[in-house]
Protein 1
Amino acid sequence: MSLAGCVPTTMLPITDADRAKAFYADALGLSFEGLNVEGSLMFRLAGEASLGLMTRPAGTQSQHTAISFEVSDIAGVIKELEAAGVAFQDYDTPELKTENHVCVLGPEKAAWFLDPDGNVLCLHEDSGS
C-alpha cells in the first residue's frame, strides 16, 4: 500500500487550546472544524488536508519548521498576517538572511513565524525560476 494518495493531517502540540484556537482561526484565517474524538482542535487546510492541535506539556514544540503554507504572494500575505498580529522572525546568519522578513532560497522565498506555543510555521512562495 502507498500513502501517496492518502489525505494528511498535520498534528502540532499546544499548551492552551483557547489561545491556539484564536491564533489559528482569527490571525491565520483557518477554518475551525471542531474537536476530534481525542479532543484535538481540528482545522481545515487546502484540499482535504487538515491541521490538528493537541494539548501537550510545554517544551514539546519542535525547533524546525512544523508546517509550511505555499502562497502566491509572500509579501502580500506577510502584510495581511502582520495586520492580524502575527510577528515574523528575522535571521542574519551565514546560512539564512531575511530582508523584510523574506529569505530567498534559489527559486523559493520563505518567511517564518511562531505560533503562541513556539511552533515554527512558514510561508513559502515558489517562483519556479
Protein 2
Amino acid sequence: MNLAERGMGLGLRTLTRLAGSQLIDRVGLRQPAQRALYRGAKTSTRAAATVGRTFGAVGRRGAPTRLAPGEARGLFDLTPTDEQQMLRDAVRDFARDRVRPAAQGADAERAAPLEVLATSVELGFTMLGVPEELGGAVSERSAVTTVLMSEALAHGDMGIAVACLAPAAVGTALGLWGDADQQA
C-alpha cells in the first residue's frame, strides 16, 4: 500500500468513526454531521487528487496567484467550521497513530522520521498555503485552520510537528508574497 492510499485510508477511517458515533444521535446532530461528512468527503477527494503533486513549473508568467482571504464570520470568531473540525480530528488521529509512536525514536536519533515526513507530504500538510492553481490543497487562507492543524499535530510530538509543517511556511510565503516567477 503506497502512502497516498494510507492517507486516504486514514481519512476514510476518520469519516467512518464520526458517522458511526452514537453521540451524534444523542445530541441530535445527525443531519449537520451528514452534511459535514459530505463536504468533507468532497473536499478530501479534491485534496487526494492534488496530494501527491509538488510544486511544478507553471506555464504562464504574469500576475502571481494569491489565496483568497477566508470568509468573515463576525468581529472575532474562532469557532471552527465543520470542515476545520474534521480536518483537526483527522490530523489528531495521524498524530496519535503515527507521530506519537515515532517520537521517542526521533528524539534518540535527533531527526524526524522520514516515513512520517513523507506521509505528511502525501496528506498535503506542506501545501496548506499554496493556491489550488499552483497545485495546492486550499482555496482560501485561514489562520484558524493552520493553527488547528498545528495544534492537533503537536499532540503527537512538537518537534515532529514543526518538521512536518516547516515546508508549508515556505509555500505560504511564496503564496502570499512571491512573484509569478518565484511561484512557478
Protein 3
Amino acid sequence: MSTVTRRRFALAVLGLLAATAALLAVACGDDDTATATAAARATSAAGSKADAPRVIRIGVVQSLTGAAAVYGKTVVEGIELAAKQLNAESAATGMQVELTVVDDESAATGAATAFEDLIHGDVDAIIGPTLSQAAPEAHRLAQEASIPVLGATTTAQGITDVGDFVFRVALPESVVVPATLARVAKDTPLDGAVLVLDSTDAFSRSSAAAMRSGLTAAGGSLLAEIDVATADIDEALGGLAAEQVEVFLVSPLVETSAPVVRAIRTAGFEQPIVGGNGFNTPDIAQLAGTAIEGAYVGAAWNPAVDTEASRAFVQAFSEEYGRAPDLFAAQGYTSVYLAVDAARRASTGTPASLRDALAATRGLDTPLGNLSISGRREAQHASVTQQYRNGQLVVVP
C-alpha cells in the first residue's frame, strides 16, 4: 500500500504501579503484610482496568496528496481536533478515540487500497474517502466487511446505496443546490442559465443534475451546457450571446472550476455565478482571484453559523490551527462526534450494533446543527447560502 501519512492518537496506558508495589512489599516486609498489600493492589488495578475508557478505533481515508488535497487536509484537521478533545475528556465520558489516517491520493484505487488496509487492521469505523468518485469501490469493501463508513464530504447521488453500513454526514448536492438556487432567484433571474460541468467526474455530474432540477424548481431555464471534458471553455463562451445569459452554474471541483470562473469574467460576462460544493474552500479565491467575487454557493455550514456548538468549534479550531475552519473541517469534526456518540449508545461493541446506533441518531447537537440520520442513512440538518465577498464566504440571509 502506498501510504503517505499515518498518524495515531495513542491510547491511555494503564499503570503497573500496583504490581511493582506488591513485589516491593514481598521483598521488604513480612509475609502477611506483603500478601495483604499485594491483594489490595491487585484489587485496585482490576478496578482501574474496569474503569478504563472504551476505545473506538476510527480509520480515516482522505486526500492528503493530489487534486483533492485542498479538501482532504482540512477534513483531517477537523477529525484530529475532535479526537484530541474527546481524548482529553475520556475520563469523564468513558470513550477514547484512536485514529489511523491514510492518504487516498485523490484516486479511487488509492481509496480502495486504504480501505483494504484499514479493514485488515481491525478498525471499528472508517471516515472517507474525500471524493465521491473514489467512494463506490471503497465503500463496497467496507460493506462486505460489515464496517460502518461515514462519508464526511461525498455529496454525489447514490453514496448510501452501496449498503446499510454506509452513512453520509455531508449534505448531498441534491439537497443543497436546489435550496441555493431558490435563494439566488430572489436576487437575480435564472432564465438563460449556462451550465458548466465535467462529465468525467462523478461529483460534477451529480452537482450538474442537482443544478438542472433546482433550476426548474426555481422557475429558471437552461440556455446551454458546456462540458469542459470535451469542449474548450474559451471557445464555448465565445459562442454565447451575452444578452441571453442570465446566470452561470459551475459544477466541477475547484481545480477545474477556478479557471472556468476566470474564463467567464475574462470573456466579459458579468452575470452571477453559482457554484457547486467544490466552491466551498478558500482556495478557490486564491486560484480564481477577483473573478470569484459575488459567486454564490450553498453549503452544509458556514463559520458564521450562530449556535453554541458552532461558535465553540470555530474558536477551538482557530486556536489549534491559527485560522478559521471551512466546511470540510466542520464535516470531519462532526463525523468523529457522530461516531463516538453512536458508540456510547451501542448495545454491544460489534460493528452491527454501531451501525444500528448510527442509524438511530436523532437531534445530535453539532457545529452543523441539530443532526439526525434519515432512513436512507443520510444526515439531515439545515443548509446555508453563501456569497464570496472580498474573497470570503459570507452567509446570505
Protein 4
Amino acid sequence: MRALPMAILTILTASAPAAAQCSDAEKTKLKEFDLAWGEATTGGNRAQLLTVYADDYAGTTPTGTLGKATTIDNAVRQAERAKASTQPAPKVTYDNFIITCTPVTALVTHRNATTSTMGGREQTSYSRSVHVMEKRGGRWQVVGNAGHALDDAAVLLYMENDWNEAARKHDAAWFERNYAAGATEISGRTGALQTKSEVVASMRTDKAVLDSLGLSEMNVRVDGDVAVVTGVNHVKGRDEQGKPFNMRARFTDTFIRRDGRWQVWATQSTIIP
C-alpha cells in the first residue's frame, strides 16, 4: 500500500499569521486565475494577457528579466508558431498547487508537465513555477514570475506523490501507465509478491480507505537510468471490512527510465512494529 504525500517546497509553504490569511474560496479563485492564465498563454490570447500581467511585471528567466510587453509578445509569437506547425502542439498540465496568500498578496507555485510527441513517442519534461500576485483594483494580477526545470530527484519525489494519490483514488490507469513491464510489488503486510497485472487488478477491486498519510526520512539516489527512493510511511485508514488500521512501514522503491520517463520497477515495504 502506498502512502507518500509530497515533501517539497517546505519553505514556500511557511504560513503567515492566521489573521492575514485569505480564505479557501480566494485560494480557489487564485488557482482558477492561474489556470486561465496558462490557457491564455498557450493560445496566445493577447487581450487576456494584457489584463493578467501588472504594468510593473518582472519575470526572471535564465537570460535576464523580462517586462510585460516582451513577455506577452513572446507568448503570442510562440502560440502562432505552434498553430502553423504540422507537429502536434505540446500539451501542458499544471498540478500540485501550493498557495499562500493574504487578502491582497499571493504566492502561487505549481508543477508543469509538458508532453510532446517526438518520433511517434511521447516525451514529458517537468518544471516548477513560482508566481507573485497582487490584488489591484479588485482583481488579481501577476507582478513577478520565476521557474526552473526539475531534476530527476524532484521528478521522482513528485511521482511518489502522484502514486500516493492514485492509490487513494484506486486509479488503476495510473498503475497501468507507470508500472514498467515486469514490475513487482511486495506487500509489507502479507509478504505476497504481485506482478504489474495483479497490482492493476487489485486497484480495481480494493475497498480499503486511506484516511491520513504521512511521510518521513525520504531519500533519493539516481544512477543513470535507475533510481532508488526510500522512506517511511505512516498510514491510517480502514480495511475492506471497515476495521481501522494505523501502521508505519519502511519502503524501498526502485525506478527505471524507459521510453524517456521514469517507471516503477519494484517496490517493497516492511511494517515497523
